[in-house]
Amino acid sequence: IITGLSHNFCENPYCSSVIPLCFAGINTLCARNRSKSDWYHFSFGEHVCSNCFESLNTNTPKHKSQSVSSVWRHRMNLWRREWLKKSSQLGRRRILNAANFLAAQMLPWWLKCNKCSQWRQLPPQTPVGSTKCNFRPDKFTCADIVKVSDAPCSWPVDERVKIVISKPQDFLASMHTHAWLQASPALKASSSYGVDLAGLSPDPLPGFTIEDEKTIPPDSPFRVFEEDGAFSPIDLHAWKDFHSLKCHGKLYSLYNLIWNSSIDFLCLIFRCVCVGVF
Q1: Count of C-beta atoms within a 10 Å radius of residue 97
Q2: How confident is the model at residue 143 (pLDDT cuts 50, 70, 90)?
Q3: Domain named CW-type: which ranges (predicted)?
Q4: Whole-number Å distance between alpha carbons of 41 and 56
Q5: Buried b (16+ CB within 10 A) or exposed e, 56-90
Q6: How many Cα atoms sit within 13 Å of 66 on the Cβ side?
């Protein structure tokens, strides 16, 4: 933070005590953390300055002639078309605005260190989806992003993390846009229903390549291929042998869903962590 400058704080009561920092940075006039104008709130400690937000708004005349803004508006339009292709008939009536695009494409990723259990924000456009990188929940450590210290885990904790941990229930309530589950194993199985109805995001993880997708076997969880819901119900013998299914049905469904994504491997705890189940 540069001293000697006045700052406007977020008007949202959830993070009114935190100096906002623009996570987008897509406009040459981006205010970063020195804006005296309005801020657009997205969640605890995550904001976009008015210059970046309005540059995506095609109805703002002063941004129409800027070439950088035009590139990002073009990307937003391409993203919107892909979403509409995979949405239901009801979802296609929705108007995906700049806030939806920023939340889906520009929000930074956070990972928890496997050594010190501290949460760290990743650099923009980090390839979190590649199986060959360390930016994965089962591999990540502070040393992957802190390069200027011999003790990376001793690096100060982000103040925004403290706010989220102290108020975990308020975090979802503070979000400006709907939270979509990204890179879910259920995407291929339920995409025909429309991703918007299933709460799923059609956007791939950053860095997820065609080679990574080829490692996933083309299996179907349904008895009849391409007929969603065509499966045999569990018989009475299965209920007696696996009585815990009655109490933890959703947990077993998630377990089987992850196992179905790679049926040749055991469904161990680190695989569940990678896809965000635990």
Answers
A1: 13
A2: very high
A3: 104-161
A4: 16
A5: beeeeeebeeeeebeebbeebeebeeebeebbeee
A6: 19
Strand 46-49, strand 39-43: pairing: antiparallel
Portion of the chain with pLDDT greater than 70, in percent: 67
Alpha-carbon distance 131 to 175, whole Å?
A: 29
Strand, coil or helix: what is 166? helix
CA 19 to chain centre: 23
Give CA–CA dist 90/92, Å, rounded: 5
Beta-bridge mates of residue 40: 48
Q: How many residues does the chain have?
A: 278
- Here the tokens at position 4 are 């000697």
Give the pLDDT confidence of 218-270 residue by residue, as tens digits: 555 554 445 555 445 566 677 777 777 667 766 777 777 777 666 666 666 65
State the residue for tokens 């009801």. Answer: 90
Residue 232 is which amino acid?
A: S
**CA 200/CA 191 separation, integer angstroms:** 8
DSSP 8-state secondary structure symbol assigned to residue 248: S
- The letter for the amino acid at 63 is H
The distance from CA 130 to its chain's CA centroid, rounded to whole angstroms, is 15
